[in-house]
Every structure is written in C-alpha cells, then in structure tokens.
Design a protein that fits this description.
It is a single chain. The longest helix is centred in the last third of the chain and has 10 residues, at 141-150. It contains five helices and six strands, in the order βααβαβββαβα. With 173 residues, the protein is an alpha+beta fold. The chain has a six-stranded mixed β-sheet with strand order 2-5-4-3-1-6. The chain has a single domain (3-152), classed as ph1033 like fold. Strand 3 and strand 4 (60-73) form a beta hairpin. It is globular and about 50 Å long. It binds a DNA duplex (12 and 12 nucleotides) through loops.
DNA sequence: GCCAACGTTGGC
DNA sequence: GCCAACGTTGGC
C-alpha cells in the first residue's frame, strides 16, 4: 500500500466539506499538472493520503483520506463551464484523470506547515521543499505515520515553553 | 497583496 | 530545441 499527500484549498474543498459529502466521498477532480496526474494514476484502491489545506490560515495537514476508486477520466476537463476546463481534452481524449477519495479521519489537531518543517523525520518530504507546488505527492510510510501521530494530540513536550514571540523573520531568498 | 518558484506556451 | 514571456501556486 502506498501513501500520498493531497492538497486542497479549503475555500475550494475542505476536509470538512469531505466529511459532509455523501458517503464522505468525493472525486478528486481538477488536477492539471502532468506530474500530479501521473501520481493520481498510480494510486491504488486502499492507499491512504494525508489531506493538506493549502492557501489556508494556517496551511496545515488536517486529516487522512483513502483512495476508494482508482484513476478514471476527469470530465471537468472537457466541460466548458468548469473552472478546470482544458480545451485540449475531450471524451475521446480525456487527458486528465481523477480518483475518488473517502474521509478516514479529521485529525483532532491540525498540524501547521510551520510545525511540519521542524519535524526531523519529515525533512525529505516534497511538501517541505522550497517552492514545492505539486498538489499530489507520494510520501513514505514512515512520513505518513509520523504525521498521523502528530495529528492525534499535542506534542508530548511543550516544544518551547511559551518562548517570547520570535522576531519576525526576514524571508531568506 | 507581494512575489519566488515553478510549469507552460509559443516565436524563432 | 532554446528560452523569454507569461500564468499559476501558495507561503508569507
């Protein structure tokens, strides 16, 4: 079984929306990046994915979803009404794929991106790479378990015991 | 709202 | 096939 990380902007489709969806299941349409699409296509039924809220306040890992249907054509691609319309796609040449995902759990505690960046075992994650934009990425089983665990409760040790607010960091770029 | 880091497009 | 221009993503 493989593990993944899928991003969604909560304004578009949050994990709470997924919880409210029929059968807590939705089609993951709208992926329009070839690399991300290819990852979608290699997903297997039963694979698990970290659900991540991008463009959120704060951006955070918020839960887990399961792949319940493997890749099939994304009809929004050839729907001129859709925000995801791609003029190159058609029913005969679907071009883009989607999977169905079902909610497994909303974490008791969302894990903000800033915190993920400080977690050693996650250092190699695509999500944490500078300038990373891929909306679908594989994660290792170890990374998956680490995030899953972080989502269950407060960090065991009060990380920095109410340290005074850090001075605003200049972005190093 | 800014803008770095990407991916894509299209002229050549 | 190169690469500048452009569009998008997404953290800040």
């Amino acid at each position: 079984m493989a593990c993944w990380l899928i991003k969604s902007e909560p304004e578009t489709f949050s994990i709470q929306d997924l919880a409210k969806a029929p059968k807590k299941t939705t089609s993951w349409e709208g992926v329009r990046n070839y690399q991300a699409r290819n990852f979608l296509r290699s997903m297997k039924r039963g694979d698990l994915a970290i659900y991540y809220h991008s463009n959120a306040e704060p951006p955070a890992a918020v839960g887990i979803a399961r792949i319940v249907r493997e890749a099939y054509p994304d009809p929004t691609a050839w729907d001129p009404e859709s925000a995801y319309h791609d003029p190159k796609a058609s029913p005969a040449n679907p071009l883009w794929s989607m999977v169905d995902v079902q909610l497994v759990e909303i974490f008791p505690r969302a894990i903000p991106l800033e915190e993920l960046r400080g977690v050693k075992p996650l250092a190699g994650m695509e999500l944490l790479r500078r300038g990373s934009r891929l909306s679908v990425t594989p994660v290792t089983a170890a990374e998956f378990r680490t995030i899953e665990k972080l989502g269950q409760a407060k960090p065991a040790a009060p990380a920095a015991k109410s340290a005074p607010a850090k001075p605003a960091k200049k972005r190093a770029r």
